[in-house]
Amino acid sequence: MDALTGEVTELLQTLIRNACVNDGTVGSGQEQRSVDVLESYLEGTGLDLERYEPQPGRTSLVGRIEGTDPDAPSLLLMGHTDVVPANPEGWRHDPFGGELIDGEVWGRGAIDMLNLTASMAVATHRLAASGWRPRGTLAYLAVADEEALGTHGAGWLVDNAADAVRSDYVITEAGGFPMDTGRGLGLPAIVAEKGCHWCTLRISGTPGHASQPFRTDNALVTAAEVVRRLAEYRPETQIHDIWRRFVDSMGFPDELREPLLRAQGFTELCESLPLGISRQFHACTHTTFAPTVMRAGTKTNVIPDRVELELDIRTLPGQSGADIRAMLDEALGDLADRVEIAVDAEDPASASPVDTPLWDSLQRVTQAWYPGAELVPFMTAGATDARFFRRLGITSYGFGLFSRHLGFEDYAVMFHGDDERVDVESLRLSTELWEALSRDLLG
After folding, report:
1. Rounded distance, CA 180 to CA 174, Å?
2. Disulfide check for 77: which of 89, 120, 218, 403 has CB 3.0–4.6 Å away?
3. Do 190 and 397 meet the contact criterion of CB atoms below 8 Å apart?
4. CA distance 23 to 305
5. Could you give phi then psi for residue 393, rounded to 5 degrees?
6. Which of 315, 291, 272, 296 has the alpha carbon at shortest distance from 231?
7. Inter-residue contact 60 to 31 (CB < 8 Å)
8. Which pLDDT belongs to residue 411?
C-alpha cells in the first residue's frame, strides 16, 4: 500500500472507530471526537481552522486555504462525521471496528460518508502542506448532524456562520460510482435530491382490560391496519425532467430506455432489476412512504388507547405539503378521520444546474482515471446537506471517485445497511480527485 492510500485508510479507520452515532437526539452524535482527530491531523499545515459547536459535543470544523483573487471561484469540500446506528447482529464484522480486510475497510460510515470526509481531509492537508496558494479559496468542512437533517450542523452553520461556509461551489456525498452505459462508462453526479416530509401519525382508541379484547377499540390494531395500507399504497410514477435527463445521459439501449421513460409498467420493470438499482430507480420516480418507528401500549394487560407512528416520506420536485396530505388521505381511506397527522420536518426537493464550471472541471479531471467516461446527472433519494447551500443559490453536487472493485449495486445496498465497506483503491482515487479538482477549478 502506498503512503497516500495508507494515510487516508488510517484516517477513515479512526473516524469509524469514533462511533459518532446519531440517533436523532440532541445528545447523540458527539462529533467532537472526530473533529478532535481531524483538527489534530490538519494542524501545522497553514490551514485556518475554526470550530463551531451549537450544542455540547455537536462540533463542526472548517479549514480554509484563502485564495489570492477575490474574484476567482471558491470551492467547499463538505463531509459529515456522524453515522446512523448499526445492529452488530447483522454484520459479518464489527460495525465500529474499522477493520481492513482483503483491501476493504469495514464499518458504519465507510460509504456514508466517512470515506469522503477522510479523503477530503487528506487532500486538503496535502494541498496546504505543499504551500499551494490558489487564486480561489478552498474550504474543508467536517460537519455534524447530517444524519438527522442538519439541525446542529450545516443548517445551523448556514443560518449562524454563513461567511465561514459560503462558497461558489459545494461538493458533498455521493456519486462517482462507475456505471456501464450504452456509450461507455458513466459517473453519476448528484445534482438533485428528493424532499423530506417526516411526520408522526397519532391513532387513538379506548383503554380496557386485555383479558377481554372482544369489541374493544384497540389503537394498536387500528395502527396495524394503517401500516398495512401505507405499505400497499402505490403513488403514481413521475417521469420528471431530472429523471429523463439521467436516462438520456446513460445511453441505455432502446429496449430499456423506453420503459424507463414510461410511467405505465415502470414498477413492474423495477421488479426485474437488481435490488439496489431497483430501489434507486423506483425512489427517484415515486413519492415514498416508509413507516419506521411505532410507540404503543403501557402494559401487557392494558388495551392500548394511543399509538404514535413515525413516517419517513420523500417527495419529488414540485410537491408541496398539501400534496402529501392528499396522498396520505388517499392511502388511509376511511381511516383518515381516525388519524391525527403532525409534520415533524419538511424540506422541498432541490436541484443544481449542470452547465457550470464545476461540472466542466469534474468532467475534465476524471479523465485521468477513467478516460472517455462521462458525468451523468442523477437524483439521490436521500437528503444531504447540499440542500442548505442550494437554497442560497450555490451550485452543489454529490460526487467522489470509486474503483470498479465494487459495483453500483453493491454500493446501493450498503447505505444505512449491513456490511458497509469501501476498498482502499477508492479511497486513493477520491483523494487524488479532490487534489486535481481543486487545482483545476481554483487555479
Report:
1. 18
2. 120
3. yes
4. 27
5. 80, 15
6. 291
7. yes
8. 77
Distance CA 68, CA 352 (A): 27
Q: 179-201 pLDDT, tens per residue?
A: 887 778 889 999 999 999 999 99
∠ at Cα 127 (126, 128), nearest 5°?
95
Residue owning grid cell 413515525? 310
Q: Which three cell numbers stand for residue 361?
A: 472541471
DSSP, residue by residue, 108-120? TTTTTTHHHHHHH
How far apart are the C-alpha atoms of 272 and 279, rounded to whole Å?
11
Handedness of CA 63, 65, 66, 72 (dihedral sign): negative
105 close to 197: Cβ distance less than 8 angstroms: no
Task: Answer yes or no: are the C-beta atoms of 142 and 125 closer than 8 Å.
Answer: no
Q: What is the pLDDT of residues 353-386, one digit of tens each?
A: 999 999 999 999 999 999 999 999 999 988 899 9
Residue pair 199/343 in contact (Cβ under 8 Å)? The answer is yes
Q: Residue 134 pLDDT > 80, yes or no? A: yes
Given a contact cutoff of 8 angstroms between Cβ atoms, the answer to whether 336 and 328 are in contact is yes
Domain 194-347 has CATH 3.50.50.60: no
Locate cell 459495483: which residue?
A: 407
Residues 6+ apart with CB under 8 A from 285: 237, 238, 239, 240, 243, 266, 316
Q: What is the pLDDT of residues 397-429, one digit of tens each?
A: 999 999 998 777 777 778 888 999 999 999 999
CB atoms near residue 440 (< 10 Å): 14
pLDDT digits (tens, 9 = 90+) for 262-320: 999 999 999 998 888 899 899 999 999 999 999 999 999 999 999 999 999 999 999 99
Domain boundary assignment for the chain:
3-181+349-442, 194-347
Q: Is 435 helix (H, G, I), strand (E, B) or coil?
A: helix
Grid coordinates representing 272?
426485474
- CB atoms under 10 Å from CB of 262, counted, come to 12
> Which fold is adopted by the domain 3-181+349-442?
Aminopeptidase (3.40.630)
DSSP code of residue 190: E
Residue 250 pLDDT level (bands cut at 50, 70, 90): confident
Which helix (DSSP H) or strand (DSSP E) does residue 295 occupy? strand 288-296
Kindly tell me if the per-residue pLDDT of 235 is higher than 90: yes
Spatial CA neighbour of 124 closest among 31, 176, 61 = 61
User: Taking 90 as the threshold, does the pLDDT of residue 89 lie above it?
Assistant: yes
Residues 6+ apart with CB under 8 A from 54: 152, 156, 160
